[in-house]
Design brief:
The protein is of the alpha/beta class and 428 residues long. It has four domains: 50 residues; 109 residues, Immunoglobulin-like; 201 residues, Rossmann fold; 35 residues, no CATH class. The protein contains 13 helices and 18 strands. The N and C termini lie far apart (68 Å).
Length: 428
Amino acid sequence: MRLRPTVRGVGLAIGGVIAVLAGVAVGAVDLVRIGTLAVLLVVGALVGIGLLDPGRGRHRLAVERGASPNPVHAGSTSVVGVVITATDASGRARLAGLRFREQASAELSGGRPLRAHVARAPGRVTITYPVLAARRGRWTLGPLVVTRVDPFGVATATTSLGKGSRISVWPTVTELQVPPGVLVGDPDRVALGARSPSTDDASLRDYRFGDDLRRVHWATSARRGELMVRSDERAGMRPVSVLLDLPTRSASLEWSISLAASMTLAMLDAGHPVRLLCGPAPAAVAARHDAALTDRPMSVRHAHNRPGDMARADILDRAIDLTIAESPAKADERLLADARVLVASDDVGEIVLAVVGPLTARTRTALARVADKAQGWAVVRSGEGGHAQRGDAESTVTALHRAGWRAVTAEPGEDIARSWMRLLESAL
């Protein structure tokens, strides 16, 4: 809490001190009393207003804050609502004399004061304001700052009210088209149909988080000691893994994440089971995975499109906390680990979409092994480090082509839909 006298209070206190000194000098007792009373009024007002903290005590005010939508995509607007309520007459009296100021991270406010609409009703104040989510991440809203002035207007107190909250900002996503027959041609569909479950297939598979519990085969689950569900997924829909090689330069980070997320969601919407490989899953997503009672790590499981957009939310939540790689060596370690996951996968006919930088000899070898059992498509970042890096990117594309990948180069910042279409056209 911050206590301070107002301009009137400062003037009154100075006048009181001068009156006391003058009264003592001339022996005027009444002048001394008046000066003392003025000083005591200011001190008493500061003490009194400090004791009446609206956020504490039996008559404290309640604060609720919500944002819609939350999470929100970077570049989009969310509307925040803050409701302050008083539960009794004393609280309503406190509420009536308060001035409010909301706080938000610079990534939401642009570093400018928030312009809010304030609606007052008996015992209730509602504050509404928009925020523009400028950057991906988790950003703070609040706490609410309240200012109150004593009845004489000589003292003011500023304090925070309630707790802060967070708004999650997903990466920017571009809607990408998945032309039929490009990623999976007709011959592939025929071959894959014999190996993939169809709507008439009564085979069972492990339970995946988000599966309808009505599909659980309880007899088999009891016999095996783990949940099993009837597999009735669409025939011929290959599983898809999107491999994201996080850059070491922040300039290309957001573009890389947006491209990978857009690819993942496009394939999910097309009906493919998908997963985004970019390191360990964040705590919130991992917690939902643990609640599903499955022992497969969240980072290696495929998500299936299901009602409620939960699969989309899990994919985008994974991307919120991604940061640049600490060093090229760390980036290689993470990419090699994800490549091992792909090589060890028992998924038949998997499609791998990769967003990578120029590769080292070790990572080229690792991705060549991936192409031995999966169909690989890669966008290789170029143009970050000048002419030398462009040459490395071209060499990477050549090496991937030799290993059986379809690959193109793209400069960070290029239109994501254009990069995607160039990648698909590389197979024609």
